Amino acid sequence: MSGPLSGHHVAVLLGGLSSEREVSLVSGRECANALERLGARVSRVDAGRDLAQVLSELKPDVCFNALHGAWGEDGCVQGVLETLGLPYTHCGVLASALAMDKAKSKAVLAAAGVAVPGGGLFNRFEAARRHVIEPPYVIKPNAEGSSVGVFIVEKGANAPPQAIAAPDWTYGEEVMVEPYVAGKELAVGVMDGKAMTVTEIVPRKGFYDYEAKYAEGGSEHVVPADLPKHAFEKAMKLSEMAHAALGCRGVTRSDLRYDDVNDILVLLEVNTQPGMTPTSLVPEQAAQQGVDFDRLVLWITEDAYARGGAGRLASTGETSGKGAP
C-alpha cells in the first residue's frame, strides 16, 4: 500500500509483561492498523524478555512503543532500544522512569512549581494497619498506571482497605497515600510540548478506575471540559510544565483533579505512553483539534525517527518530526 510511510519498516511493541497487557494489545492493534494504512511494513512484536533478540533479527527502521505499565513504560524497554540504537516513540529512559515512580515525579514536579497533592509514600502493611493520614484519602501503587490497585478511603472509614496487605497484592511494597481531592477528573494531552485541550471525565459509576478508563461506556468524556476560563488555562499550563519538568517528548497525558467548590487544581501524574484505544483520551483530543487518528500516529512515528538522528521518515505529507501537525 502506498502512503507517507511506504518503504519503511515499523515494529509495533505491544502486549508486554505488565498488568496493563490487555490494554496495550488494543493500543498496539489500533496503531499497527493505522501504520499499515499509512503504507508502512509493520511487524507486531509482543514484547517479552527476548525483545532485544527479536528486534536485532527484525532490524526495523523505528519502533512504535504501544506498551503500557511496568517494563514497557518505566524506562526498561527504552534502555533496550537505546542499546540497540533503534529510534522509538514517546519518552526516553529517564523521563519514563521518573513519570512511572509517583513519589519521585511528584518531587520533581513540585520543585518545578507544579501544584501536586500532599501525602507521601508508605509501606503497604503500615498503610493497611492504620490511617496514615486523615480520611478521606486515596491509596495507589507507587509504580503502576491506569488506576489499577487504587482505593478511595471515605471520610469516617473505620479502617484502611485490607486488600493492600493481601498475599495476592502484586503492585509493589510501597503505596502512595494522598488526600482525596473532591471535584472533577480532568485530562490534558500534550503534543510536542503544547497542550491540546482539557477533557472532563465523568465515570458512569464510582471513580475513574481501570474499567471506567477502558470499558466501552465506562465513562463520559466532555471535550472541551466545561470549566471556568482560568481553571481551563491553568490545567493546560500545569500539564505543559509537567511535560517539560520530567523531560518528556512526543505525546503525554496529564491527569488532574479540580475542586470546583474551593477552586483547587492539582496535577496527579503524567502518563508517558497514553492509551491509543477507541476510548482513549489523547486520540479524542487530537481529533477535536482536527488531527485524525492516522495523522496522530504518523506524527508520533516521524517524531521518533527524527529524534533518532535519521532525519525525516516520511517523504510526503503535512507532518514533520519537528512539530505537531
TrEMBL record:
GO terms for cellular component: cytoplasm. Mg(2+) 2 binds at residues 269, 271. It catalyses: 2 D-alanine + ATP = D-alanyl-D-alanine + ADP + phosphate + H(+). Its EC number is 6.3.2.4. Pathway: Cell wall biogenesis; peptidoglycan biosynthesis. Cell wall formation. HAMAP family: Dala_Dala_lig (MF_00047). This is D-alanine--D-alanine ligase. It comes from Phenylobacterium soli. The gene is ddl.
